[in-house]
Amino acid sequence: MPVVxxxxxxNSALREEMRRDPRIIxxxxxxxxxxxxxxxxxxxxxxxxxxxxxxxxxxxxxxVGVATGMAMYGLKPVAEIQFIDFIYEAFxxxxxxxxxxxxxxxxxxxxxxxxxxxxxxxxxxxMFHSQSNESYFIHTAGLIVVMPSRPYDAKGLLKASIRxxxxxxxxxxxxxxxxxxxEIPDGDYIVPIGESRIVKEGSDATIVTWGAMVYQALETSKxxxxxxxxxxxxxxxxxxxxxDKDSIIESLEKTGRLVIVHEAPKTLGLxxxxxxxxxxxxxxxxxxxxxxxxGFDTPFPLVHEKLYMPNIARIYMxxxxxxxx
Amino acid sequence: MGSIFKKYSLEDLGFNVEExxxxxxxxxxxxxxxxxxxxxxxxxxxxxxxxxxxxxxLDDWILKLQxxxxxxxxxxNKGQEAVAVGAASALDKGDWLFPSYRELGAYxxxxxxxEEILDRAIADAxxxxxxxxxxxxxxxxxxxxxxxxxxxxxxxxxxxAAMAAKIMGHKTVVMAIFGDGATSRxxxxxxxxxxxxxxxxxxxxxxxxxxxxxxxxxRQTAAKTLALKGAAYGxxxxxxxxxxxxxxxxVASKAVEKARNGGGPTLIEALTYRVGPHTTADDxxxxxxxxxxxxxxxxxxxxxxxxxLINRGLLxxxxxxxxxxxxxxxxxxxxxxxxxxxxLPAEVIFYNVYSKxxxxxxxxxGELRESLKLLEExxxxxx
Lengths: 325, 383
Description:
The complex is a heterodimer. Chain A contains 12 helices and 14 strands. By secondary structure, chain A is of the alpha/beta class. Chain A folds into 2 domains: about 5-185, Rossmann fold, CATH 3.40.50; about 195-325, 3-Layer(aba) Sandwich (Rossmann fold), CATH 3.40.50.920. In chain A, helix 10 links the parallel strand 13 and strand 14. Chain B contains 13 helices and 7 strands. Chain B has helices at about 15-20, 40-65, 80-90, 105-110, 115-120, 155-165, 185-195, 215-220, 245-260, 290-295, 300-310, 315-340, 360-380, and strands at about 95-100, 175-180, 200-210, 210, 215, 235-240, 265-270. In chain B, helix 7 links the parallel strand 2 (about 175-180) and strand 3 (about 200-210). In chain B, helix 6 packs parallel to helix 7 (about 185-195). The longest helix of chain B has 26 residues, at about 40-65. The N and C termini of chain B lie far apart (about 55 Å).
């Protein structure tokens, strides 16, 4: 079992899938000779050639629109958005076409393609290289939204996404690209869409989180365990939509306390939806109000980003609220 | 090199395929005059040289500061000073500039000081943009609008400002500068289309440095030149040697004058070369040869202009040394000063989101303060 980082895991998923299925192609800005700015597509043009690894002109609307047409015709494109913050030029294509092709055409056409790219903060990227914008896509019916937090999931989820029948927005926390390494199985495996992972079992409170915040939650759980003896369960959603509601409910049956942690701005973040769903349907499970610890409702800052994003202190504050209620 | 350097007159910047396909030039690589020199004073000519020198020195310092972690990221300007300085020098004080992120020379020409540019690069306590974003510069006092990082999205804004000036009866001209990559975006199309239809007093300067990160301009478009693209919008396109500051200045001046007199917009393609990486996060060795970059270093716009000024008797070797030496020391002092300035306070996260902070922001500011207190109590540092 090789030890790999997330970039290598994603690269091997693409390489293996492209070997398996000649319909799979990669397109985006600088994905060819440059290998992508984070090198996720490194070496692919050498193996598969410029017909299947396409360096595109600089236009996200073009990339996603063209990829949608390719998918409708029969290819399986994996489109890279260089930074997910640049996706808005393609937003019209995503909302108007990609997400609605199946519905609009009475199911006659579909566009199963992957739009993947680096997201989220922590690398001093400022307001245009740090965004966590998953809510826009979760709010758009017809899209699957995925965010892995470790190399194993990155590879397995990308393979599952490529083999799926629906368009997937695949969000990769860039801070984790090279900071997390682990052993992953050699060769083929998938991580199913829609299944969360229990990162750590616990009995006093549940943290539901995803992406790089999984590690902040873990760190905080150790702190409160040693300080107060609180036992925290941590769920990594992995698939943000359709999210694994059953795993949250099962956990709440045990803990009765819910803290949702995400990097995206608080207002109308996915945490709001999860909190509303639980309050609507499972309020009797709760011993305390649901608490969200999230990015502030501001553009992502260049300075003090570690104070903007949920950190150990803010997650601790959230846990204290549910534990002392 | 011969045939593309066609001589033509700038009399009426009209539709002219020759202009969009040719390359307007005033001085060649050796500083010899091969075109029509702009009719401006020797003082103005020397001033443009000094701006280019200042931009080069400043660029070098920001690069150094980035390498030691004091600046988040930098898009090197080296080799492209003639476009920024030549184009911005064509504007009047009241005109507006929407630059991109590789135009240090233009910011200096407009009046921004080295100190505020460095405050911005470092995002220190005096940063006029309050730590909003990296690699963008501007100041309302000088009508320089800080750029959006996603390239080309400022083009329609520039057109809107130009249309507003026209509607309000002002004589203001608005210039937008962007790269070759930006011409592929929908915003370029929308902006130029509006500008053409509404005869906006706008000047578009494409800083064609031939690379959008790794993609060469010949893969960016199948059009023979970028200047040709203007034709589809009814906007005259002119192609100019972007390493010849006098050529850029002449063409830009003509376009600004035309726009100011109700003649509508012009698209200028300034052909230059990105000698360095796209940004400090890039590695050009992955996609182009070192020989290619070395060949273009020989076309350095500052060297070329120096030769011209010396030929004209406007500059001597000793005077040149004095300029580099003086500005080198001056800027070094400013770097030292900015290096030691305190950081911005954490509350800047909440600045300028709305005209007045909304209730959620006030709540969250409280959460931030509480978290800072808790971090102190716990003896933890997250930054």
